[in-house]
Write a structure and sequence with these properties.
Blueprint lengths: L8 E9 L18 H13 L6 E2 L8 E11 L5 H9 L6 E9 L11 E10 L12 E3 L5 H8 L4 E4 L14 E12 L2 E8 L6 H13 L7 H8 L14 E7 L21
Parallel strand pairs: 3-10, 5-6
Antiparallel strand pairs: 1-3, 1-4, 2-3, 5-9, 5-10, 7-8, 8-9
Helix pairs in contact: 1-2, 3-4
Length: 273
C-alpha cells in the first residue's frame, strides 16, 4: 500500500498553555526559540510516528495564554484519546497540556470552521504588584472605573471597521470584525474584560484593552472609544496593553462538530466555593 492510498484521519485537540514560557504560538522557521506549536508538534509526531502539522483556531502572541486553544491535524492512524492526551502530555513541558482529543470529520478546520473566539483580559488594580500572579495578569496602580470601561466597550459592538485597533503588521485582508459581546466586570480581586467576536485582528484585544484602561483611569471619557473606532487610525488609540493577562478561553464551533465545551478559564477566575 502506497502512502498516497492511506486515508488520513483528522483529529482535533484542546490545548491549555502558559504563554509566558514561549515566544508565541506559531512555529518559527529557525526552530531556535521555543513556541507552543513547535513543542506540541514534536510530542504528537512521536506518538503518530510521522511528522505532524498543526492548524490552530487562533494564533497567540508571546506572553498570551490559552485555556481552550483548538487545533487539528491529520494522522495515518488514530492512536486514540489516551495516546493523544496522556501520551503527548508525558512528552510536553508542564506549561503546556492537551486537555481533550476528538476524531473529527475530514472537512473540519480548526480555524475556518470556528464561529467565534472568546478572550478574557485580566487586570489587577492594586498599589503593589502580585508576585504570585506575575505574567498572568496585567497590573495597574490606578483604581479603575469599571462602569466607565464597560460603557465604553458597548460602542465597539457589532460588525465594524477596527482599523484603529489593529497592529501595523496585521496581514488580514479586511479590518472588519463582528464583536458579539464585550463586558467589563470585577471578579473578587480582578477586573475582567470579556470579549467575543467572530475573529480578531492582530493585537485587537490588547489595543482595545489599552483604550479601556485609559478610560478606566479617568484620562478619557467613555465616548472616546467611539471616536477612536470612527477614526480608523491606529495612532489615535491608546498604547497596546501588555500581553500578560490575555487568555483565549473559548472557540465556538457548529454543534455537529461534536467537540466538548470546556469550562471557561483561567482557573483562578472560577467561582469560589
Amino acid at each position: 500500500m502506497t502512502n498516497e492510498s492511506i486515508k488520513a484521519t483528522r483529529v482535533a485537540l484542546g490545548i491549555e498553555y502558559d504563554g509566558a514560557a514561549f515566544h508565541g504560538w506559531q512555529r518559527q522557521g529557525d526552530q531556535v526559540i521555543s513556541t507552543v506549536q513547535g513543542e506540541v508538534e514534536r510530542a504528537l509526531s512521536k506518538i503518530a510516528n510521522h511528522p505532524v502539522d498543526l492548524v490552530c483556531a487562533g494564533r497567540t502572541d508571546t506572553g498570551v495564554h490559552a485555556t481552550a486553544q483548538v487545533v487539528h491535524f491529520d494522522c495515518e492512524i488514530d492512536r486514540g484519546e489516551k495516546a493523544w492526551v496522556r501520551g503527548a502530555n508525558s512528552l510536553l513541558p508542564p506549561s503546556v497540556r492537551i486537555t481533550w482529543a476528538s476524531r473529527v470529520a475530514e472537512d473540519f478546520h480548526a480555524r475556518f470552521s470556528a464561529l467565534s473566539r472568546r478572550y478574557n483580559y485580566v487586570i489587577y488594580d492594586a498599589r503593589v504588584e502580585s508576585a504570585i500572579m506575575a505574567g498572568r495578569v496585567t497590573h495597574t496602580r490606578s483604581t479603575l472605573n469599571i462602569e466607565a470601561m464597560h460603557k465604553a466597550g458597548q460602542y465597539l459592538l457589532g460588525e465594524r471597521d477596527f482599523s484603529s485597533f489593529r497592529a501595523a503588521g496585521c496581514q488580514s485582508r479586511t479590518p472588519f470584525r463582528n464583536v458579539m459581546h464585550l463586558r467589563v466586570y470585577r471578579h473578587h480581586r480582578y477586573i475582567v474584560l470579556d470579549i467575543q467576536a467572530n475573529a480578531f485582528l492582530q493585537h485587537m484585544v490588547r489595543n482595545i484593552a489599552g483604550t479601556l484602561l485609559e478610560i478606566g483611569a479617568g484620562k478619557r471619557e467613555p465616548e472616546w472609544a467611539a471616536e477612536v473606532l470612527a477614526a480608523k487610525d491606529r495612532t489615535v488609540a491608546a498604547m497596546t496593553a501588555s500581553p500578560y493577562g490575555l487568555y483565549l478561553v473559548a472557540v465556538e464551533y457548529p454543534e455537529d462538530s461534536g467537540l466538548p465545551s470546556p469550562e471557561l478559564g483561567p482557573g483562578f477566575l472560577q467561582p469560589l466555593p
